[in-house]
Design goal:
Strand order of the largest sheet: 1-6
Low-confidence stretches: 486-496
Helix content: 55-70%
Strand content: under 5%
Order of helices and strands: HHHEHEEEHEEHHHHHHHHHHHHHHHHHH
Radius of gyration: 26 Å
Shape: elongated
């Protein structure tokens, strides 16, 4: 029978589902943002300049003042050059010659740093950049690492879809959890940049997929009327994860300890194995009726719940990332009722267009940090809203037999962003708002295209491929928002 027709008789959102959601799936989601974004802070670029030789009886700051050229930054502020120094005869330069050198230095040629770099870091605030000198001619290294991290996530997410649909939601989750924990801990032990990149590729392989099981299980365990709520709650847990990460990376500044601190919460998730259920929808689709019946009986006896970019905005990078996570939380206050009253399609369209327009508007105020940050936050709210609605729509359109694979394929396309955005950020180092303009344009285009998708509010989840084929792209009904409580053409379809 149709699983969604069975749920009202045993509980669409009873105590069992609530217990699983609050004490298993929410905790499973909470650390998911840690490994997704901690690399931004492990690879933070501290203030630096060419390392200079010492001169007897002359303070280091004095040597720096006449040895390092002054440059104008993007915000029109003067600062010491990161990669150049004056070509001075330091071997024969004494304190009595400093004044003459200082007067004539502007006529001297500048050369690349000869003796490495001096990094302005505290003992407890280091990064891979300062440890392995990844600046100047090697400055693209951290961007390349982010691109490889995104590529590995794309591949891993694609494979995860097959694993999730083949072995089940629960085994797939713990297989990927093992991989993520091993590589996450190994990251802290890396003794070279190459080893660190390889460990991050291993972590990235599982990062998008590790969120897949809690999300899919939350959607598949409840009835149609509760899917919006559990989707919003799952995304609130993810937003709290980003806020938590901002606090962790602020408190733990050493990149090695940061890697361990952000991996530790994943280790605790192994304790959820005895209480994490398999999806009864997946079990029914696989013909494993007896196992599905056990879970359904448990439900019925108790029947009576823009982040690569934030550090690059300027100002306090930790505050920027904190705001990027915290700004998502009030979004859900209007997103929840919007999805229930306007439907998925219109909510998605409005979210993307508003978010994209805010990102595009930063071009007009790119020299004002405060207004740029405010527009970025509005854009982040729009993107966050779309991030909630789009996976929910996808999960409601894909049939159960290939839902894991379908969600993974959708995520694979979405993972192209984390691959290309670091490159856009790097190329936009001379234009701070370039990444926001690119993302804004894509959001507005995507928002317009979203009106072509069929509405899925209150529809039963399709079980088979034949059920899904009965839902077509809706080119004509985009101006008619659905009403809460209506049920579409799949009401009596999707039987197994």
């Amino acid at each position: 029978m149709d699983f969604d027709e069975l749920l009202p008789h045993i509980g669409e959102f009873g105590k069992y589902q609530k217990l699983v959601l609050w004490f298993v799936l929410f905790p499973a989601v909470f650390p998911c943002g840690f490994h997704a974004y901690n690399q931004l802070f492990m690879a933070r670029v501290p203030e630096h300049w060419c390392r200079l030789p010492s001169i007897p009886n002359v303070h280091e700051e004095v040597i720096k003042n006449f040895s390092i050229p002054i440059e104008t930054s993007l915000d029109n502020k003067s600062r010491f050059s990161d990669c150049l120094m004056y070509d001075l005869p330091y071997d024969s330069l004494g304190s009595d010659q400093l004044e003459r050198a200082n007067l004539t230095k502007t006529s001297l040629e500048t050369v690349a740093c000869r003796n490495g770099w001096t990094f302005l870091v505290e003992e407890t605030r280091d990064s891979i950049i300062s440890e392995w000198n990844l600046v100047c001619t090697k400055s693209f290294s951290s961007t390349l690492a982010l691109i490889l991290f995104g590529c590995s996530g794309l591949i891993g997410n694609y494979i995860f879809g097959y694993v999730q649909d083949g072995l089940g939601r629960k085994p797939a989750f713990f297989i990927y959890l093992i991989v993520q924990c091993l590589f996450g801990v190994a990251t802290a032990l890396a003794d070279s940049f190459l080893v660190w990149v390889l460990m991050r590729v291993g972590v990235g392989f599982t990062v998008p997929a590790i969120l897949g099981t809690p999300y899919v299980l939350a959607v598949e365990l409840v009835g149609p009327k509760e899917r919006t709520m559990v989707t919003v709650l799952i995304n609130i847990a993810y937003s709290v994860s980003l806020v938590g990460l901002a606090l962790v990376v602020y408190a733990v500044r050493s990149w090695r300890w940061m890697a361990l601190a952000t991996a530790a919460p994943f280790l605790a998730l192994f304790f959820t194995w005895p209480v994490l259920p398999e999806s009864p929808r997946w079990l029914l689709a696989q013909g494993r009726i007896a196992e599905a019946r056990e879970i359904l009986e448990k439900i019925a006896s108790v029947y009576v719940g823009l982040s690569y970019y934030a550090p690059a905005l300027g100002g306090d990078e930790y505050l920027n990332f904190f705001l990027a996570g915290a700004v998502e939380l009030p979004t859900y206050l209007f997103l929840w009722p919007a999805m229930e009253r306007l439907g998925r399609r219109w909510t998605l369209c409005v979210s993307m267009v508003v978010g994209g327009s805010s990102c595009l508007a930063t071009f007009l105020v790119q020299n004002n940090y405060v207004i740029t940050l405010a527009l970025y936050c509005v854009g982040k709210m729009g993107i966050s809203s779309a991030f909630v609605v789009l996976p929910l729509m996808a999960s409601e359109l894909y049939p159960t037999v290939v839902r894991g694979l379908g969600m993974s394929l959708s995520s694979v396309v979405g993972m192209l962003g984390p691959i290309f955005i670091p490159l856009v950020n790097y190329l936009g180092s001379d234009m701070l708002t370039l990444p926001l303009i690119v993302m804004g344009a894509l959001l507005v285009i995507g928002g317009a295209c979203s009106l072509l998708l069929p509405e899925t509010l209150n529809e039963h989840l399709p079980q088979t491929l034949d059920d899904a084929e009965k839902t077509k792209l809706d080119f004509c009904a985009c101006c008619v928002p659905p009403r809460r409580g209506e049920s579409g053409p799949r009401k009596n379809e999707g039987r197994v």
